[in-house]
Amino acid sequence: MLLLTNALLIDPEANTAEPGSVLIKDGRINEVLPQDADLTSYSVPAGTAIDCNGKCLAPGIVDIGVKVCEPGERHKESFRTAGQAAAAGGVTTMVTRPDTMPTVDTPETLEFAKRRGSEMTDVRIAPMASLTKERAGREMVEMGFLQDGGAVAFTDGDHVVTDTKVLSRAMVYARSLGALVMGHPQEPILSDGAAVTSGKFASLRGLPAVSPLAERMGLERDLALIEATKVRYHADQISCAAALPALKRAKDAGLDVTAGVSIHHLTLNELDVGDYRTFFKVKPPLRNEDDRQAMVEAVATGLIDIICSMHTPQDEESKRLPFEQAASGAVGLETLLPAAMRLYHAEQLSLPELFRAMSLNPAKRLGLDGGRLSAGAPADLVLFDPDAPFVMNRETLKSKSKNTPFDGQRMQGRVLRTFVAGREVYAR
Amino acid sequence: MTFRAEHLLGIEHLSPTDITAILDLADQYVDLNRSDRKHSEVLAGQTQVNMFFENSTRTQASFEIAGKRLGADVMNMAMQASSIKKGETLIDTALTLNAMHPDLLVVRHPHSGAVNLLAEKVNCAVLNAGDGRHEHPTQALLDALTIRRAKGRLHRLNVAICGDIAHSRVARSNILLLGKMENRIRLVGPPTLMPSEIDQFGVEVYEDMREGLEDVDVVMMLRLQRERMDGGFIPSEREYYHRYGLDAEKLSHAKNDAIVMHPGPMNRGVEIDGTLADDINRSVIQEQVEMGVAVRMACMELLVKARKLKPVGVMV
C-alpha cells in the first residue's frame, strides 16, 4: 500500500491537471482522491505515504519503438542499462523493436527478449516482432505463434517491405489475427543513401538528401494496402507536413490507422545538424522548421496520436565518422520527458495532451492496461518537476550509448520518482 | 587587417576582407612565381602534409609546389592506398599524423564534412582541398584572383556558372565567394543537375544556356562529374554537349569580352569545345592553374602565421 499525497494529477483521459492524491494497493491505483479529501481516514503504514510537494504525477510513459541492442550488440545497450534509462526517464513500459541481431522473428527469440527483459529490468517490456523473416521482406513470420507468445505488434522497422505482394499478404494475415502492423512510411529508393532532408541546408552542406515527399509516398502506398486489407496499422514516425493530408483522409475514411512522431522531430530541426554533428543524424532525417511546427500542431489536434523516443543507441565509433558514413539514431529514453517539457513551456501542448500522446494513446493502441490515472489502472506512475532546470550532460545518461542530440543543452523538467506496479523503481 | 582563421575549411566562414587579403597576398606570389628565383623562406622549418583520400593529380601538385616554394617540408600521402584499407578510421589517421607535429594538413576527402571532422581533432592548421560536394575554397579563391586580374575588379560582374552544379563543390564555394563580393550569379544547367532550393542562395537559375549567358562577363564551366553520378541524370553525353556544352555560338550571347573558365580537368567535347578552351583571347583556363599555386601559397602563409599569433594547446 502506498499513498501519494499533494500531487498535481495529470489525467490524460479526463484532460485535466488538478491537485489530489493517489492511493495504491496491490500494484494498482485503488483510488484517486481530490485535494479536499479527508486523508485522515486512510491509515497507511508508516513510511508508505509520500508527500509529492505539488509536483506532477502522471501515468508512466509507454514508449513505442525502443531499441535494446540485445541480442547481438550488447556493447551498445543491454536490457539492464535500457531498463535503468527507462526508469530514470519515467518510461514504465518499453515497447521493444525487433531489429536486433538476430531479428526477433521466431517465438524463441521473442521468448529470449521477454525473459531478459523481465530478469534484468524493473520496467515492463512489451516486445514487438518482425513482420517478415529476418526483416528481409520475403516471407512472413509465424504471426500466430508470436502473438500467442506476447508480441504486441509486427514491424520490419526501417526496412520497408518493397514487395507489395508480400506486404499485402502479411497485412491480410495480420488482420485475421487482429494484430497490429507498424510501418515505416518511406519510399526506400528515393531515400536510399540520404543523410539529410533536401533543401537549402542540404545544398549548402553538400550532403545527399531526400525530399519529404518520399515519406508521403510511402504512407500513401501503405494506406492503399490498408484500405484493401483492413489491417490495424500504426505509422512509426510521421515527420513532415506533406504526409498529413493523407493521414487525415485515412482517418476520416474510418481506416484503423494511428501515427507516431519522435520527440526529436518535435523539438529539433535540420539546422541543428550545424557543422556535420552526427548526433543529429536520425531516420527519417530532421526536417525544416515548418515541418516541425506542423508536427506539434498535429499532436495537439490528435491527428498524430503518439510521441515516442525512437531510442536508438549507437556507440562512439559509429558516430565518429563523416556525416554520410555515420550511423543514424539517437538515444531518447531519458530525454523524452524533459524534451517534451519544451513543448509545454512553449505553450504548444498541455501536460494532459503530452501524456495522452506519451502514455494513454500508446497503451490503448497496443491493448495494454496502463497509460491511465484512474482507479483500477496499474500503478505505473511518474512523478516529475516540469520546471526543474538542468544542463544535459550525456555522460550522466544511464544508457550504455551516449548519443543524445541534447548534450550540453539547457533543459527543463526532471523525473523525481518512477513507479511500476506500485513499486518505486527510480528516485532522484 | 589580420587574418585570424584557424583553418580554411570553406568560403562560408570567410569575410570579404579575408578574401581580399588572400588575393592581395596571392598577387605578390604571382610575381614571385614568374621570377627566376621562385623561392621564399616564409614556411621554412614547417611541415606540410598533403592527405588525399580521393585521387587528384593537379590539385595535389599545385599544393606541393606551393609548399615547396614557401620553403616548407612537404609530404604527400596517398590515403587510398594506405591505412584506410586496413580499417583505420579517419579520426585515428588524423591523430596519428597529429602526433608527428605537422604545421599544416592539406586534406581532400570524398565525403562532405569530413575535413571539418578532422580539423576538430588536430592542433595544426587544416586546409580543405575539397570535401565531397561541400566546398573547395582554394579553387574559388583562385577563380576569384583570375577574374580580378582579367576584369580589373571582383564586384558587380555577371557570372554564369554552368553544368553539373549538384555534384560540384567548386560551384558551392564559388557561389558563396562571388555572392560575398557582390556579384550577380547565374546558374545554368539541366534541372537534374541543380541542388534543391538553390534559388534561395541569391542566384538566378537558367535551364536554357543561351538565355543564361546573355550579357555575362564571366562564363565558368564545370566538369561533368560522371564518376559521381548514380546514373540517369542526363540522357547522353552528346545531348548534353548539344544543349549545355560551351561553343562559340553559345558564347556569342555573352559580352564580347567575356572570359571562359574551367576548373579542370576538362572533358573536351562534353562540356566545352576544344578549340574554344584553347583560344587565348577568351579562355583563361591556363591562368587559373597559375593562380592556383599563388593562391595556395597565400592561404598557407596566412594560416600558419595566424596560428603563431596564439598559443596552441599541448597535445596529451
Description of the molecule:
The complex is a heterodimer of chains A (428) and B (316). Chain A has 428 residues and is α/β, with parallel strands linked by helices. Helix content of chain A is 29%, strand content 23%. Chain A contains 12 helices and 17 strands. Chain A has helices spanning 79-89, 107-120, 143-148, 164-177, 200-205, 213-229, 244-252, 263-267, 289-301, 316-319, 336-345, 351-365, and strands spanning 2-11, 16-25, 28-34, 49-51, 56-59, 61-66, 91-96, 124-127, 180-183, 196-197, 209-210, 232-235, 257-262, 306-308, 381-391, 410-420, 423-427. Chain A is globular. The relative contact order of chain A is 0.16. By secondary structure, chain B is α/β, with parallel strands linked by helices. In chain B, helix 6 (169-180) links the parallel strand 5 (158-162) and strand 6. Chain B starts with 15 loop residues before the first helix and ends in an 8-residue tail after the last helix. The longest helix of chain B is centred in the C-terminal third of the chain and has 24 residues, at 285-308. Chain B has 11 helices and 9 strands. Classes of the chains: A alpha/beta (428), B alpha/beta (316). The A-B interface holds A 198-200, 202-207, 209, 211, 275-276, 317, 320-325 and B 12, 89-91, 109, 111-114, 116-117, 131-135, 169, 172, 195-198, 200-201.
